[in-house]
Amino acid sequence: GSEAASEQGQEEEVEDRLKEHMDSLLDKSAKARQAALQSLRLALSSKTLSEFLLERRLTLSDSLEKCLKKGKGEEQALAGTVLTLLCLQMGSGPEGEEVFRSLKPLLIGVLTDSTASPSARQSCAMALGMCCYIAAADLE
């Protein structure tokens, strides 16, 4: 019984930290947003969080959209990586497709922007390819 309670407490603690990181994506400071993106990248790549993300996918994709639109260089690169991990977590169902469809134009925009940093363009190319492979319903 106490192990289950301890595990439940740890899970709630992880979810609380993730909520804080998601809130930090809207911070005015680019450094704070980058730190939040790095923390989310680490969390999404180390643990399956699909239940948690299912309820928050729209909020997270809106925040990632802002990072891709307004961010520069490193922030855009991290946002692309987090988007790839979000697509992986959401899978090939309608939720993953919805996230991909909403952010696809932005990914293409960064990818084709010759003034964007090479790391941002590379990350967006990777996100576009992976998300298309995982979540695109349209074969084209």
Automatic annotation (TrEMBL):
Residues 1-23 are annotated as: Disordered. Pfam families: IFRD. It comes from the Eukaryota. Residues 5-139 form the Interferon-related developmental regulator N-terminal domain. PANTHER family: INTERFERON-RELATED DEVELOPMENTAL REGULATOR, INTERFERON-RELATED DEVELOPMENTAL REGULATOR 2. Belongs to the IFRD family. This is IFRD2 regulator. It comes from Thryothorus ludovicianus.
